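Two records follow; treat each independently.
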Amino acid sequence: MKLLRSSKKWDVFVWVCELASYVFVLIYFFEELREIIYFKWRYITKFWNVIDFLIIASAIASGAFSVKQYLRVPMTIDAIRDNPEKYANVEHLGAIYNSTNQLYAVLLLVVFLKVFKYLKFNKTMGQLSSTLKRCSKDISYFLLMFFIVFIAFGEVGCLLFGSSVYNYKNLDIAMFTLLRTTLGNFEYEEIGNIHKVLAPIYFLTFIFLVIFVLLNMFLAIINDTYDDVKIEAPPDELQMSQYLQNRFYKFLRIIGIKKNFGADEQKNAVNTNMELLGQKLEKRGFNHFEIDMFFERYRINPEATIKTDELDDSAEDSTRRSKRLDTIDNASKKLEEIDETIGLLFNQVKSLHKRLDDIETKKKKLKRP
């Protein structure tokens, strides 16, 4: 346990860095406080807002304990020097020191979680976060079922082996033992010697349900969702290296060092493969057959390249044509409905004329003597 923080020169540097970090935490606190006042209860509905709140709370708490330790240590040392014959009790300093380290550990963990927010610039990490976000509902249902099965096996293990085996003495120890079993760390002989029949049934049933079924189901949920995210991911997603490169080139343009740079990159960025045209047409509602007919009609080579503005213009033109065709189809459908209505009215009028003729005929027959 280290009580004196400024005993070495390096400790002074660390103390200055901590002071600077607490200044940033204070600024960060007022920013988050403004968001809490503005969003109110909606603030906690976002995951990253909760992470920010935990960072601020753990930073403030660790800072408070650090200041308390910084103030109490000199007082305790002075008291020991004044009464050297009296027993020096420094347990309270040890408790403060341990609490400070624990809060620092929590702060470090939450800060590392916050790093994942900025890793979305990377395509793979962005797909990972999107996968976890999309399958969170399925995973929650899976975890509910998993814990029900896990607790059930823990209780059964307590009832069967709790009186003879320490690893199944109570529910907490039994569940921890089962968790070790899922990781391959188990001692079957402990329960096998107790029950020759029930022990293998219990063990094999747990292995089959939890490892072969539930864990593979969990992996299947993650894998299927990742495949969907990977298919739906945009092909031209901005990477961290590209972002930094663009910012660096922009800085060079601002200071006037380099004006014409990356001509090949700009040319490649302007030229877009015709496959992207097909993808844009597909997003606008065209199927593959219509896209092939479009290429065939206008004699477009699918391997050719066009400019981005031409790509957008062609897609918009195709959309306008599609809307015109939809309008014509709707008009023709309305005309057909009108024709059907006129036909029904004509049939009704014809039936009325026929009924009137029948009535006239009956009247004439009645007038005859």
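The next record belongs to a different protein.
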Amino acid sequence: MTARGRTRIVERRSDPPLVLRPTPEAVHLVGGTAGPLGGDDLALDVEVGPGARLTVRTVAASLVYPGTGPSRLAVTARVDRGGHLDWAPEPTVAIAGCDHEASASIDLAEDATLRWSEQLVLGRSGEAGGRVRSTLWADLAGSPLLRHALDVGGDAPDGPAITAGARAIGNLLVVGPEAAPLDREAQSPERAVLDLAGGGALVTVVGGSACASTS
């Protein structure tokens, strides 16, 4: 953050297929090539400084393709005191035959805030979805806040306690004042709100297509 209270990017480095493009409103992840592709091992590190605010978006859905082995994407985010991170990419589509591992690890300072949205769609229209194993871990002020794992698609087991056959899964993790007004009355088999012991909430939605809203 500058002396005038404005957020500015002090370092930006990227290589295809994850290319970073800043705009006045957000930093966009642009697919420089197709992928993730089986065999890719990708990593993205995000750091938000004290009092700064960062919005991250993508310009289109990400298609995960099969290949010579599993594909991997690891995102690490750190948000310093008074900082805010708003992460909401377009859905990830797991194409039939893919084997994908996705992990997100978020480290929040004591008064940092967060809005982290993830959407997964199993397969394109008319096809079965590939296998996806994902984890979402968050720490607040050095203590564990959330440990969330998902293993779906492909030959992964399914049932009423997992996705009940739904093709789309959305998660929204909110830490800070935005967690208070979340609608907790609209609980259903397709939507659940979990209040976290350390503060904040996790909203999970399942459906037949991309989850347009997890709020």
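Discussion point: The chain has one domain: 18-207. How would you locate this feature using only the token line?
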